[in-house]
User: Which sequence fits this backbone?
């Protein structure tokens, strides 16, 4: 239905249709349609103008489309078209000179639609063979991406040149996007940009549309995006970029897109998306270039990490991965990581040994310098384990352990936790050792061969001797399942050592050790230990169970002592004899608390022995012993050390649990200084769990002569009993100190320090010895003295024991002469006693004769206190009271001296004169003084003096008491 007007003029036919209604495949209304045809030219339209229309056009079948007709002018204005569900508003479409095969021009202004706001286009082209060939320019404003595809979102402006050829529309130009937002399953959050700009290339053919965008800057990085739509649905995505900071990527992209959790370890760096592609129904394929990454993994900080990641649907490939940590680097790493956890990789490394402590605890080891290079391969699968293998070379390594530096070099291979040295060379100075073999956790197999400078052992082993030279090592070490086996030999012929002046071995003297030892759990098995030093041969076999129980077989042979005498600083001409030991020991528990089960013998004939803790060597040893399991006998038929000699010594022991013994020693001469200098160490005690604690037995010691630093004794006899950790001495007798010593007592050794009780007497000894014990060296007293009493004390040293002594001591001497005593000399000098005796007696020449001298002392903590010291002499009487300190060797006492004894005694016989001329308790001439300080050189101070002239007032005063006291 339509209104029609028809006109004709000069060959021109004009048709004008109004209010057309169209029904059928194409439906709608056309308000105005004008057609002007030139009949002179056949079917030729001068113009066609359509306006005011609203038409719905069905989707055309493939291969069909708009078929143009010849027209000088074709205009479509002010209408709407709905095609395949898409509605367009057309402001203007104008085509001029359109004819098949002839060029034409066009312009178009398509107004607002559901997907865009406006499209403006202009250009020209031809139509032939049912196809358009068009070029032109176009502007598209406010394309709504959300309505077009749902994702991404934003408003797009597009401008550029386009071509339509072979049914393909191609657009090249620029675009701008406002409020761009894209969401994706692999994104942590949508990508948003307020504004994006870039270059655009689009292609439309049939139902497919390809869009490519480049020079899009997002977060300061250029991006290229490729999109493909099928039937207006996005079907493919392609993406590439410049370098983005890792922080930006990690903030935006989820781990699913990367295919690995590696980003959890990445701290810094950049990544470039070389290629990211996504196809509907398939996974993401990504190729990422890494640059300057900082990765922290298991305590190791890698820097400058770079390389290429190719992330596919099921695998992640990495190539040319490089990086460094400290001065160490990994490079040329390539491999594949599968989504099932499988991995294959290989590459190379160069490790500066100084970097190792940053990721591996070395304990006391320290690398000073060096490098190791090598290759590394990794393969395996999560859940089934991984295999790590490779090979490397150690170069110029300087390793320090316990303050010792050594150089190490060599080749090695490794598979998982097993390392094979092939070989490893250790060197320092003259030391050069080669190590071959394998090491892994719980297993070890090494062959060690080379020369070891003994000086290098000092930091590891305390060597109490001077040593130098090379020790030849040829040994193997094996360890598996906690069992360690060491076997081999050590040749020490080129080694020199000297043991504190007691033993000396020069280079060239044969010395070798051969050994095989196994450690299993807490047990040590010595399968074979043979040591030779010149003609000394030692063989040992046995085991140590749990570090506490020992069983062994021991053999020692020295056939000719003279041959090795020079090793021990002996004269070969005087050293003779031989030594033979055969011993089987069982049930030896450590610490030793009872005797082990011993079977065997020890024989020493004319032997010698130098022990480090003894001052002089032992010589002329003639010893035989017989060990019979639970019992043993040791007989010493001769022995000498310095001047000390033993004629006979016997020890018999019976039983192991509670041994009973008898010990007898018969000495010709004994001086403790032949063995050691003055003993200042701790006095021994017997611990409750020691081997001696359960021993009981008799002890007998005889000595013809015993000599110490300040004493000499003859015919010494000692007998006693050891029981319950106490030594009871029932007899200690000797001729000493010019007289006889007879003592007995008990030494209780069961506590933490010894407790000693001594009782006895010293008869007819030299009188001055008692005071010399307190330090009175400048004294000489002729006569004999008796000392008797008891002392008890406790202390862990001899000095502390004496300092804590308690008891009672009585000293008594008769008819002697004090020739010299500095204490009395200083006292006489201060009191001018010598002037009083001038012309009567010469004390300096003849001394002071006495008839009695003595005192009784109470001893407390080493301090001797007396109230009754007396020297009774025809010339004077000396009395005193006070203290002698044995610890400090000092005196603190008061001394009274009455010189004119004869006159005083005459007055005493006459009672009346006695009361007039004498004060009660004093002499006719009587002086007193205080003495303090060192007993050999004390300070003397006069405290009281009465002279003849000073008696006058005293006589008068005493007369008042005459009636009462005259007959006392």
Assistant:
């Amino acid at each position: 239905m339509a209104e029609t007007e028809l006109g004709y003029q000069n060959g021109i036919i004009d048709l004008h249709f109004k209010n057309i209604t169209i029904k059928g495949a194409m439906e709608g209304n056309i308000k105005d349609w004008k057609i002007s045809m030139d009949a002179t030219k056949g079917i030729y339209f001068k113009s066609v103008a359509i306006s005011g229309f609203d038409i719905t056009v069905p989707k055309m079948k493939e291969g069909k489309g708009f078929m143009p007709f010849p027209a000088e002018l074709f205009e479509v204005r002010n209408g709407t078209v709905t095609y395949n569900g898409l509605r367009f508003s057309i402001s203007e479409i104008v085509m001029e000179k359109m004819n098949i095969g002839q060029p034409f021009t066009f312009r178009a202004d398509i107004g607002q639609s559901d997907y865009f706001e406006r499209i403006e286009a202009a250009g020209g082209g031809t139509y032939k063979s049912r196809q358009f060939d068009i070029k032109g320019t176009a502007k598209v404003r406010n394309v709504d991406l959300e309505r077009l595809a749902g994702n991404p979102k934003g408003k797009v402006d597009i401008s550029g040149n386009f071509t339509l050829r072979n049914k393909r529309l191609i657009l090249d130009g620029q675009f701008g996007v406002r409020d761009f937002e894209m969401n994706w399953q692999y994104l942590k959050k949508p990508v948003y940009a307020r504004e994006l700009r870039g270059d655009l290339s689009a292609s439309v053919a049939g139902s497919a549309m390809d869009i490519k965008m480049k020079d899009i800057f997002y977060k300061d990085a250029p991006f290229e995006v490729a999109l493909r739509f099928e039937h207006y649905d996005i079907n493919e995505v392609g993406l590439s970029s410049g370098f983005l900071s890792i922080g930006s990527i990690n903030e935006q992209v989820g781990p699913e897109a990367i295919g690995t959790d590696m980003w959890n370890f990445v701290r810094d760096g950049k990544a470039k998306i070389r290629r990211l592609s996504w196809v509907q129904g398939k996974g993401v394929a990504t190729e990422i270039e890494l640059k300057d990454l900082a990765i922290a993994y298991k305590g190791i900080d890698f820097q400058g990490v770079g390389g290429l990641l190719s992330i596919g649907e099921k695998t992640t490939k990495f190539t040319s991965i490089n990086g460094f940590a400290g001065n160490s680097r990994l490079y040329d790493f390539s491999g594949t990581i599968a989504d099932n956890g499988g991995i294959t990789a290989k590459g190379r490394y160069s490790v500066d040994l100084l970097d190792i402590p940053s990721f591996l605890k070395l304990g006391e080891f320290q690398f000073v310098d060096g490098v190791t290079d090598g290759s590394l391969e990794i393969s395996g699968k999560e859940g089934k384990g991984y295999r790590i293998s490779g090979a490397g070379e150690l170069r110029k390594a300087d390793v320090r352990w316990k303050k010792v530096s050594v150089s190490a070099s060599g080749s090695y291979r490794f598979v998982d936790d097993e390392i094979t040295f092939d070989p490893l060379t250790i060197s320092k100075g003259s030391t050069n050792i080669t190590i071959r073999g394998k090491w892994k956790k719980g297993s070890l197999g090494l062959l060690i061969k080379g020369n070891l400078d003994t000086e290098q052992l000092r930091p590891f082993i305390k060597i109490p001797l001077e040593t130098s030279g090379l020790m030849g090592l040829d040994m193997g070490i094996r360890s598996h399942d906690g069992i360690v086996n060491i076997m081999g030999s050590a040749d020490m012929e080129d080694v020199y050592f000297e043991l504190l002046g007691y033993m000396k071995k020069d280079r060239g003297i044969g010395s070798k050790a051969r050994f095989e030892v196994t450690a299993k759990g807490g047990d040590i098995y010595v399968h074979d230990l043979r040591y030779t030093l010149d003609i000394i041969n030692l063989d040992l076999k046995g085991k140590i169970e749990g570090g506490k129980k020992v069983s062994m077989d021991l053999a020692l042979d020295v056939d000719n002592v003279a041959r090795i005498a020079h090793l021990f600083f002996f004269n070969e001409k005087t050293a003779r004899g031989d030594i033979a030991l055969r011993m089987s020991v069982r049930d030896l528990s450590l610490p030793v608390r009872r005797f082990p089960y011993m079977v065997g013998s020890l024989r020493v004939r004319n032997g010698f022995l130098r022990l480090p803790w003894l001052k002089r060597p032992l010589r002329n040893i003639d010893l035989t012993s017989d060990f019979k399991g639970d019992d043993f006998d040791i007989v010493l038929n001769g022995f000498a050390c310095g001047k000390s000699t033993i004629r006979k010594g016997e020890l018999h022991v019976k039983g192991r649990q509670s041994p009973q013994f008898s010990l007898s020693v018969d000495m010709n001469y004994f001086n403790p200084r032949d063995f050691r200098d003055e003993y200042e160490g701790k006095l021994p005690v017997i611990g409750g769990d020691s081997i001696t604690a359960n021993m009981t037995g008799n002890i007998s010691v005889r000595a013809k002569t015993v000599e110490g630093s300040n004493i000499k004794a003859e015919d010494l006899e000692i007998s006693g009993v050891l029981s319950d950790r106490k030594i009871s001495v029932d007899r200690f007798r000797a001729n000493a100190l010019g007289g006889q010593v007879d003592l007995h007592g008990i030494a209780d050794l069961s506590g933490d320090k010894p407790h000693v009780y001594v009782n006895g007497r010293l008869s007819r000894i030299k009188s001055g010895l008692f005071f010399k014990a307190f330090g009175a060296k400048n004294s000489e007293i002729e006569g004999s003295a008796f000392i008797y009493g008891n002392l008890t004390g406790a202390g862990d040293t001899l000095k502390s024991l004496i300092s804590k002594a308690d008891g009672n001591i009585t000293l008594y001497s008769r008819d002697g002469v004090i020739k010299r005593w500095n204490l009395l000399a200083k006292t006489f000098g201060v009191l001018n006693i010598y002037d009083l005796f001038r012309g009567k007696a010469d004390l300096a020449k003849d001394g002071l004769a006495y008839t009695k001298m003595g005192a009784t002392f109470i001893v407390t903590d080493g301090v001797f206190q007396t109230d009754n010291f007396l020297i009774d002499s025809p010339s004077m009487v000396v009395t005193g009271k006070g203290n002698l300190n044995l610890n400090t060797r000092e005196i603190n006492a008061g001394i009274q001296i009455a010189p004119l004894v004869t006159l005083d005694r005459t007055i005493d016989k006459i009672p009346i004169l006695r009361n007039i001329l004498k004060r009660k308790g004093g002499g006719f001439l009587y002086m007193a003084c205080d003495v303090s300080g060192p007993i050999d050189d004390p300070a003397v101070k006069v405290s009281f003096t009465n002279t003849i002239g000073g008696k006058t007032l005293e006589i008068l005063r005493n007369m008042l008491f005459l009636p009462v006291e005259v007959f006392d």
Confidence is low (pLDDT under 50) at residues 916-923, 947-968. The first strand starts at residue 3 and ends at 9. The radius of gyration is 61 Å. Residues 436-533 form one domain.
